[in-house]
Design brief:
With 306 residues, the protein is α/β, with parallel strands linked by helices. It is 42% helix and 13% strand. The structure holds phosphoric acid mono(formamide)ester.
Length: 306
């Protein structure tokens, strides 16, 4: 079985293979197709536009059948556990589940217990593996490789699953990662970067990776900080002018326009924000294909016993 719950378990070769598969799907507009009809379900316990819709698009492009599942009208409302929900779907024929959940590492025990692969679409403040992979693809398309690149991850580092996944993988692939942003949102538990000032980061790096302020995960009222955020830590029109030639802007979105980034920069020449979203479809095709190929191999193994 081929779960994808964290990027930490991916070897460099496997990451590069996923990026290559995704790029082939993008360029050739063709995917892998299952030998027989296959079924998946998307379980979103938290709000999403990009991740959910691009998984659904990826499933359509691979010819998969998506079984509709809505948390608000499911038996989750009657207290059914995540394990029972997944095994119920497995029992009726679903072969892989995509899950977004507010709890950090919701998958830890589940991955040993369930009978079908889990693709993590984001867990609390933990990991967002497919966002990380689509960010890597966007950087690779721009620069060809990761070695020697300087990348600044900026903003709400403490609450960001994107920051954790990306800093680890970019370091593994040979880039140098810097962090910048408010002291209050530093993440001392993330060892894969060095803290520098916002202006120094913006002026020196190849990739300015902005993070959304995760208002929904803040326990304290940071309203004063939020008001000042754009001028002190955001990518203002003035700061963008000081960026290096050829450097690019990423943001996982949704964007708080006028907070992390000036409204007029969201679609500027350096911005790859909508490109990231497009790449999300191809990355999700690649990870769905890998997970379902492992299911197919399992089916074949079972057939071999008959
Ligand atoms: N970037 C991202 O995960 O966006 P959604 O929350 O809209 O899926």
């Amino acid at each position: 079985m081929k779960h994808l719950v964290t990027v930490s378990t991916l070897e460099v070769n496997e990451i590069l293979q996923i990026l290559s598969d995704a790029e082939n799907y993008r360029v050739n507009q063709r995917g892998w197709y299952p030998k027989e009809k296959m079924f998946v379900a998307n379980l979103f316990f938290e709000a999403s536009t990009r991740t959910r819709c691009s998984f659904e698009m990826a499933e359509q492009k691979l010819g998969l059948t998506t079984i509709p599942f809505e948390v608000t009208t499911s038996s989750v409302q009657k207290g059914e556990t995540l394990y029972d929900t997944i095994e119920t779907l497995a029992a009726i024929g679903v072969q892989s589940v995509v899950i977004r959940h507010p709890e950090d590492r919701y998958y830890e025990k589940l991955q040993e217990q369930v009978s079908i692969p889990i693709l993590n679409a984001g867990d609390g403040c933990g990991q967002h593996p497919t966002q990380c992979l689509l960010d890597l693809l966007t950087i690779q398309q721009e620069f060809g490789s990761f070695k020697g690149l300087k990348i600044a991850i900026m903003g709400d580092l403490r609450h960001s699953r994107v920051a954790r996944s990306n800093a680890e993988m970019l370091t593994k692939l040979g880039a140098t990662v810097y962090f910048a942003g408010p002291e209050e949102w530093r993440d001392e538990s993330n060892p894969y970067g060095t803290y520098i000032g916002v202006d120094e980061a913006i002026q020196t790096v190849d990739v300015v990776m902005l993070l959304r302020i995760q208002f929904e995960r803040h326990s304290k009222n940071h309203s004063t900080l939020e008001e000042e955020y754009h001028s002190r830590y955001g990518l203002t029109v003035e700061r963008e002018k000081s960026m290096k030639n050829g450097s690019i802007i990423l943001h996982p979105a949704p964007v708080n326009r006028g907070v992390e980034i000036a409204d007029e920069l969201v679609e500027c020449q350096r911005s790859r924000i909508f490109k990231q979203m497009e790449n999300g479809v191809y990355i999700r095709m690649a990870v769905l294909a890998r997970s379902l190929q492992s299911v197919e191999r399992g089916m074949n193994d079972e057939n071999n016993y008959q």
